[in-house]
Specification:
The structure is a single chain. The chain is α/β, with parallel strands linked by helices. It contains 2 helices and 3 strands, in the order βαβαβ. It has helices at 22-33, 55-58, and strands at residues 12-17, 37-43, 68-69. Strand 1, helix 1 and strand 2 (37-43) form a beta-alpha-beta unit.
């Protein structure tokens, strides 16, 4: 509360490009661990073999409901 007013913070939405790669997977993991962030998109190149898989599972944090896409 600030002067009798409840402060609310909205989440910062994240779109991770290169989400199936080593650094992208780490960013997905970090984005799911902080309550201020929400991973909303996981993008990689069209030839990536991970297209369609859940980004959270690739990052070893469990399903987050965001599939890796090429768009």
């Amino acid at each position: 509360f600030f002067a009798g007013v409840a402060l609310t913070m909205s989440k910062t939405t994240l779109a991770i490009h290169g989400a199936a790669g080593r650094m992208g997977r780490r960013l997905v993991a970090l984005g799911t661990q902080d309550a201020h962030f929400q991973v909303v998109a996981a993008i990689d190149h069209a030839a990536c073999m991970q297209i369609g898989k859940d980004a959270g599972e690739l990052a070893a944090v469990g399903k987050i409901g965001v599939a890796v896409s090429d768009q």
